[in-house]
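#struct-queue
[09:14] JT: dropping the first one here, sequence first, then the C-alpha cells:
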Amino acid sequence: MSTNNNKLTTNWGAPVGDNQNSMTAGSRGPTLIQDVHLLEKLAHFNRERVPERVVHAKGAGAHGYFEVTNDLSQYTKANFLSEVGKRTPMFIRFSTVAGELGSSDTVRDPRGFAVKFYTEEGNYDIVGNNTPVFFIRDAIKFPDFIHTQKRHPQTHLKNPNAVWDFWSLSPESLHQVTILMSDRGIPASLRTMNGYGSHTFKWVNEKGEGVWVKYHFKTEQGVQNLDANVAAQLAGENPDYHTEELFHAIENGNFPSWKLSVQIMPLEDANTYKWDPFDVTKVWSQKDYPLIELGRMVLDRNPENYFAEVEQATFSPGTFVPGIEASPDKMLQGRLFAYNDAHRYRVGANHQALPINRPVNEVNNNQRDGQMRFDKNGGSSSIYYEPNSLGGATESPADNVTPFEVSGEAGTHAYSHDDHYTQAGDLYRLMSKEERARLVATIAGAMAPVESDEIKLRQISHFYKADPEYGEGIAKALNLQVPVQS
C-alpha cells in the first residue's frame, strides 16, 4: 500500500535526502560516483529528447585554427600551447541553449561556445558559453533548471511561472540572470560576442606544478548586441539570421577572430580568495588575476555538410590532453559525465570515431563493437585487452593526472560561500543609466506573465539585495512594493 507524503524520490521509490547538493569528498569535492541519485538524474535527463540535443539544439559551426601568441609553457605542458607561432586546427560550434532545432537565432538566451582543438596529443574541448558565469553551481540542479526553460507538459508553451519560481528559489542564479536580461542577452551576431570557458580548470607544467586557470575569448570584431525589438522582428523574418550571417562572412573572406586570454591563480589562493574560485556563478576579479594573452583563434572555413560536421560534432569538458585537468567545480564535475553520456545516446557509442570528432593522432585502445562501428574495429588483432605481454597498447604512468588532496567527510555539501548579490550588484552599477533602464524593462516584461505575486516578490527581493535601485525599479514596473528585507 502506497502513501503520498509528497517526498521527492528516486526512480526506484527511495526518498531523496538532498536534491540541491551532490555528494562530494569534503566541501570542495571532487564529486563521488557513489551519488547514484546524481548519476541517475543526469543519465535520465540526457535521454529525454530524441534525437536532437536536449540543450544547445540550434547551432552553427566553422573550422579554423588557433595560434599561440604568448609562451605560457611555464604553466602547462600541453603540447599545442608549447611555442609561440604554433598553429592547431580547430572547430567551433555556436548555439542557443533552450530552444529547439527550428527555433530562432535571435532569442534572448545564453550562447554556447564550444571549441574542439585537434592537437597532436588528442582532442581538447573547451565547452563554454558567451557568459563567464552560469545560473547554477551544482550539476544535480541542471535537469530541473533546464526543465523550467522547456515547454509546459500540457500546454506545450513556454512557462514563465516555472522559470521565475526556480530562479527565485535559486538565488545563485542572480548574476547570470542579470547578464541574460542585459543588452548582452541578444548578440548582434555570432562573430560579435565573447566566449568563456566559464569553469575553473587546472594547468600542470612539466615539473608537475599546477595552477588554476579560466579562459576568456575576446572577439576582435568588437562586442555588438541587438535591440530587443530588432531581434523580435528578425525572429519572425529570418529565424536563421545568425547562422546565415556567420556563413556568408566566412564565405566572403571576412574571417572572424578572437583573442584567447587566461586568468591564472596559484593553487594555494583557492583556500583564501574572497570567492570560492570553483563556484561557476562567480567571476575572479581581473584586478586580482589579470588577463594574460595566450593566443588567437581564426575561423576561415565553412562546413561542407551541416549534418556531418555541425550536427554530429560532439564536445565534452572532460576531453582533456596532458597538462590540462579538471578542478573541483561541482558543475564541471557533473558535466564530465553528462556530456559524453548524452553523445553516446544521441549519436552513438562510436561518436568520437566520426570524422568531425576524430583526433588527428592515432586512437589506440581496446574499445570494440557498438552501433554503427564503421572503421576496422581493431581488425584481426588478438590483443584487445590491457595489461598484456604481447606488445599491445599499455598505460603510460607519466601521463597520469597529477595527485590532489581531498579532505572532509563524504556526503552532500553546499558551497561555503552564499553571497549571491555582490557581483550581480557590481555588474548593475557598472551599467550606464540607459543600460540599467533597459535591463529593468526587460526583466519586468519577462516577469509580467508570472501568475503568482509571491514568486515575483521573492525574485524582487533578490534584485533589491543586489542593489536597492535595481529591485525598486523592477517592483515599480510591476506595480508592486519591495518586500520588507530581513
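[09:21] JT: and here's the second one, same format:
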Amino acid sequence: MKSPRGEARRRELLDKVADELGTNGLVDFSLRRAARAAGTTHKVLLYHFDGAEDLLTQAVLQLRQRRITRALAAASEGPGDRSLADRVRSMWPTLIGEESWVLDQAIGLAMYDAPRYADLARTASRQYMPTLLSLCPESWSEQRRQEVAELILATLRGFLIEWRTSGDAAGIEAGLAALTRALEREEQAN
C-alpha cells in the first residue's frame, strides 16, 4: 500500500496525463509523451503505474469520470421533479462536449484490439450505470431501473457513434426525441 503522499503524487500525475490525453488524444500515446505532459520522467510513471497500458487505462477512466460528473450535474440542474426523460436529454450536450472524442477513441481501441483494451469498454458500462440508475425513480423495482438504465446507456452509445461517424445532427435529434417519448411512457406506466 502506498503512502498518502505517494497516492497524492500518483493522482497529480494522473490528472496531468488525463489533461494531455483530453487535448491530444490516444494516437501515439507513450510513457515518454505522458512523462513530458506530467513534467516528470517515464521511470517515475513506471513507479506509480504498471506500464503504459495501465496509465492509459487509468487516464481514460479519469476522463470518463469527469464526463460523468458533468453529465450528472447537467441532469441535476433545475427543479427536482424533472422527468427522467428531461434529465437524460439534458445530459446529451455534455456527452458530446469536452474530451468526448478521446473517449470515443478509447471505445474504438477496445473494439480494434479487444485482447489488450477490452477493459476500456467494459469499465465504461460499470462507470455509467450508477449515474443512470440514480436518475430512475426510486419507486421502481431494481429490475426495472436496471432495464431502463441499460436501454438509456445502449441508446446514447449508439447516438455517440452516429454523432462521431456521420455527424447526422437531424437523425440524432429525431432519435433523442424518440428516446424521450419512450422514457416518458415508461415513467407514466407506474
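[09:30] RK: nice, looked through the second one.
[09:31] RK: The radius of gyration is 18 Å.
[09:31] JT: good to know. The longest helix spans residues 52-76.
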